[in-house]
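PROTEIN FOLDING TASK:
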Amino acid sequence: MNAPVIDVDLYADDVLADSREVFARIRDAGPVVWLPRHRMFAMGRFDDVRAALRDDELFTSGHGVAANPLTNALARDTTLNSDGDTHTARRRVLMRSLGAKAIASVEPQLAAEADAVVDELSRRPQFEAVTDFASRLPLSVVATLVGTRRGGDRMLRWAAATFEALGPINGRARRSMGRALSLYLFSRALSPQSVAPGSWAASVFDAHRAGEVTLREARALVIDFVAPALDTTILATTSMLDLLGRTPAVWDEVRADPSLISAAVVEAVRLASPVRGFTRRLAREHEIGGVHLRRGARVAVLFGAANRDETRFPNPDRFDLQRADAAHVGWGNGPHTCVGIHLAKLEMRTLLTAMIPHVERITVGQPVPLRNNTLQGIAQLPARFG
């Protein structure tokens, strides 16, 4: 073992509430470090993280992306937990609903809902940003498009529990297992008759009938719509509102030049990094920066750490719409780039577009941090439009 050792619980409550200090320690220690409490390696420097995400033949997902073997076994039929041709085939099915061209067709629905949200919240003395602002589009529009005939609130709770289960088997994971198992069992009972005709879920069963995926895969793929459509986008949207409230000059900049809306979304996701990271399994022996990694070693690839790497992003904590190179790994990178990237960007852009004519100032209160083994962000945030 010639890797620097960082003796820290990556999933402790205080670390989950704010991982920046621990992520900096990991980056400063070297390109890859050993976490003895979790018996796995971790990487947090931008160039190393991006290289790992792009090399799916070496840093594999087919043996799972969780930090425990139980979740990895249960999730083996999902797109996230697959490699090579299998991953390509599953992703192709999902992208028929989530590709840029397909997502553009739902823009009028999202725009109408965004206008209604901003109009309503502008007349309130205060609102809760997570439930009243960030969750409205995913739960009112996107959950309907998925078409599982289950309430979006229930799907959101199930999905959050599944993200908990991607960490080690700690207290949070154990407490969430019942809800995570409910999502798993729900997916196993899905059929073409149990989903809405013409929905995203129906398209997956169409792919099964065409012989592109097995029935077991089709059921798992329905659940692949949930994470990019709900939790991660809600967290990114909440963080975006918080950032704009705390940096009014940036909001003034966006209002003066709406062409900066896309830059605001991209920069907000970099700072939010709603997915802290996933693990990967080494397909063969490999060396990084003089550290020898054995075949089968598990490595935590930390998106959140990479996105605040000062060697890539000068003044990394600054909300800056003028970065010369703003590309980051908030949506992952390479073959496993988040399938919901186009949907997430559109939802966030649509909300900002609706706000520009009506919201001169955003006031935010003290955020309550989320504590989740895989997700990071804000659990509650009081806010006001002025």
Notes: The chain has a mean pLDDT of 94. The first helix runs from residue 13 to 17. The radius of gyration is 20 Å.
